[in-house]
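Supplementary notes for students who missed Thursday's class. We covered one full example, reproduced here. Read the sequence, then the structure, then the short commentary at the end.
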Amino acid sequence: MMTTILSILTILLGAAAVAILATFTGTILWIAWPHALPVVLPKLVASGWIPSHLSWWTAVCLCYVWGLLFSPKINTTISKENK
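Structure (token representation):
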């Protein structure tokens, strides 16, 4: 029972950490997107493959998904010494 509770708490803390980082990095992405992408990839922006502007929420969601997909694995195993 205790192992299950600790596992759930670890997952929730990890998701909260990713959400905080996603909010911070999403805000940076939201600010930088309209200034960087049209300069770096002008043909893709002009043709409509990449949007020229992002909403703040879309930028945060992109960073959150990116963080969940590529975050390091959290070790949730509990050693016998901690039981």
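Commentary. Residues 18 and 71 are 8 Å apart (CA to CA). The two ends are 11 Å apart (CA to CA). If anything here is unclear, bring it to office hours.
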